[in-house]
From TrEMBL:
GO MF, any single term: DNA binding
Name of this protein: Transcriptional regulator, TetR family
InterPro entries reported in the protein's UniProt record: BetI_C (IPR039538), Homeodomain-like_sf (IPR009057), HTH_TetR (IPR001647), Tet_transcr_reg_TetR-rel_C_sf (IPR036271)
Taxonomic lineage from the root: Bacteria, Pseudomonadati, Pseudomonadota, Gammaproteobacteria, Aeromonadales
Record keywords, A-Z: DNA-binding, Repressor, Transcription, Transcription regulation
Provenance organism: Tolumonas auensis (strain DSM 9187 / NBRC 110442 / TA 4)
Signal sequence, start to end: none
Top-level taxon of the source organism: Bacteria
Domain HTH tetR-type: 15-75
Pfam families: TetR_C_6, TetR_N
DNA-binding region: 38-57
Amino acid sequence: MSEMTVTSPESDRAAQRRNQVLDAAAVCFRNHGFHGASMAQISKTAGMSPGHIYHYFDNKEAIISAIVERDMEEMMEWTEIFYSSDDILQSMLDGVTCGVEANTNPDCAALMLEIMAESARNPQIAATVQKSNQIGRQRLSDLLIKEMAQRCAVSTVDVQVKTDLIAAMFDGLLMKSVHNPTMDKEALTVLMRQVMLFVLTL
């Protein structure tokens, strides 16, 4: 008999409140920047008192860390779909559409670029971002290795190099979506699939 994880109503409410704060903080960071957004603004946007927010987070750095960690959890859930596929290569190619949509979303781009800018100035945020990147990089590398095993293929390029190139392509969309918000995402997605196929089968 499989085990089931049971959460209490209290822990569910706490998780909901934490996410409520993170969503509100994301709005404030996008609109005002990390330094321009105050805890008072975040609390007002979240619809709760500053004291209530401090119950969950010590400061804005802790909030950003939680946002980065939440994004990483979502990425891990997404890659699990690829891991469980009988055809990882095709699943990854099919996933390009969602990847392009996510990384050209104006709200997502504004928030992630703000976090990256702050990580260049703030060692605490930098450590969080770098740790998240290392976890994501390893996860993608493991996925590429499993994908090659499915095809009984041997790569002519180091897997870590492939991993970094794929990450750079999608991360670059964040910046490009700010520079050119009207770019043809449909045409871009078609080309991205072709590039992904080329890189994955090297």
